[in-house]
Design brief:
With 430 residues, this protein is an alpha/beta fold. It is built from 15 helices and 14 strands.
Length: 430
């Protein structure tokens, strides 16, 4: 693999004798409970604890767990009391957190894990929070040996891992580096979680109040470890209306609209490339789309969705602070709530990422999961990230600091997720 100069190689603070392997912080929230339920069945002999503000509510969650989960210890920790976060971080190898919006609640826990040399994983889709985490704690985490891994759910593992898979396959084939690369959501059934909605609202509010932040978010390399080292490939817009054939012959007849999470996901993918030493290539452009089908109405639907996305990003990022919050709260899901078990089970998604390499070879990388993408599937992705960080430490990359899923544990997740029910493939196309 390419040199890891972007994040450095540093020694770890020893976590071998920590009391716990994994602490689930925010276990009383909806996705936190789902993550605890998943790990109760998947963690094997890992030492797991539940953490949050209310011991009574944590006990209620623990009673719903299977097997060893019913005896997991309970820790009291609160973002408003940093000392409790510091104590929690010092007792475990890994903290996974579902407590968002992360820009509002997340930085004290990042600080505690960076100081203690404790690995960390979250579900954030907030580039402003990740940028603050990098600026404030990347060096400290690298020095103490902590891996601070953001975006370990549906945002942004499918994006990050499919591109990583394309790179690995092209490298194995001697087919050169990646050029034009596009993620396409082929199908998606499920709902946006209340926590994700709250994070998006916080991001719109913050950007509408801060022109400097708004300009930073418009930069495709806003999460880069070294902005000056990045190539100039044009704007790489997050909002595009395209024919499927412009991406790949396999999508001929499809019409493509913007994917709603393209902005945070694409910044994560580009940061992965930089952290790993640009093995994807310095000429790789990247974007995300979703298909609206092949019907006669598809081009109109794609154009309408593109217009709505552009309007939301351009006007929302400037004027959202003037929208009455009570009005917004009526139409978005409430944090800590979610759909029924039947709805979660019936959800699914399938994502395909296409690329052409410098040798002219074409590839398609696919990830698919059964389960509502915002809830059940995300809980699996976060749970497997926690297990990778806690149990597969000798097989992870040597990188430390504020990382991405692919940069921290790309090869390990590529092996782990199929065993957890996900489909992961890379095909060379004709």
């Amino acid at each position: 693999m390419a040199a890891f100069a972007a994040a450095g190689r540093f020694g770890d603070m020893s976590t071998a004798r920590r009391e716990f392997d994994i602490v689930i912080y925010g276990a009383t929230g909806f996705v936190g409970r789902l993550t605890a339920q998943y790990l109760a069945g998947a963690a094997g002999g890992a030492r797991v604890a539940l953490a949050g503000r209310s011991p009574e509510r944590l006990e209620g969650v623990r009673e719903t767990l299977a097997g060893a989960g019913r005896s997991w210890p309970i820790l009291t920790a609160d973002a408003s009391a940093p000392s409790t976060l510091q104590e929690m971080a010092a007792r475990t190898r890994v903290v996974v957190t579902t407590v968002g919006p992360y820009a509002k609640y997340g930085l004290p826990l990042v600080e505690a894990c960076a100081a203690a040399g404790t690995d960390y994983a979250d579900l954030t889709g907030e580039p402003n929070f990740i940028r603050d985490s990098i600026d404030l704690y990347h060096k400290q985490a690298a020095d103490t040996g902590a891996r601070i891994v953001h975006s370990c759910g549906f945002d942004s593992i499918p994006s990050d891992l499919t591109v990583f898979g394309l790179y690995r396959r092209a490298e194995a084939d001697g087919a050169g580096q990646l050029l034009d690369t596009t993620m396409v959501v082929r199908s998606m059934v499920g709902g946006v979680s209340g926590g994700t909605a709250a994070s998006m609202l916080e991001l719109l509010t913050a950007s509408s109040r801060d022109a400097t932040l708004r300009r930073a978010l418009e930069d495709p390399y806003t999460l880069s470890p070294d902005r000056g080292a990045e190539p100039e490939l044009g704007g790489q817009p997050d909002v595009r209306w395209r024919r499927g054939a412009d991406v790949a012959a396999e999508l001929r007849g499809h019409w493509l609209a913007p994917f709603v999470m393209a902005m945070p996901n694409s910044r994560i993918v580009r940061r992965s490339n930089a952290l790993l030493g640009y093995p994807y290539g310095r000429r790789m452009s990247y974007g995300e789309q979703m298909t609206v089908g092949t019907s006669v109405a598809a081009p109109v639907a794609a154009a309408a969705l593109t217009g709505v996305s552009a309007l939301t990003m351009n006007l929302g990022s400037r004027f959202f602070r003037f929208v009455p919050r009570r009005l917004v709260d009526r139409v978005v899901p409430t944090p800590g709530t979610g759909p029924s078990e039947e709805t979660r089970d019936n959800g699914h998604y399938r994502i395909e990422t296409y690329t052409t390499t410098t040798s002219g070879a074409r590839y398609r990388s696919t990830i698919a999961q059964q389960g509502d993408f915002g809830y059940k599937a995300t809980a699996v992705l976060l749970g497997e990230s926690a297990l990778a960080l806690a149990l597969d430490r000798d097989r992870l990359s040597d990188l430390r600091g504020v990382l991405t899923p692919a940069a921290a544990m790309g090869d390990v997740l590529w092996e782990r997720l199929p065993a957890a029910g996900a489909t992961l493939t890379v095909d060379r196309l004709g």
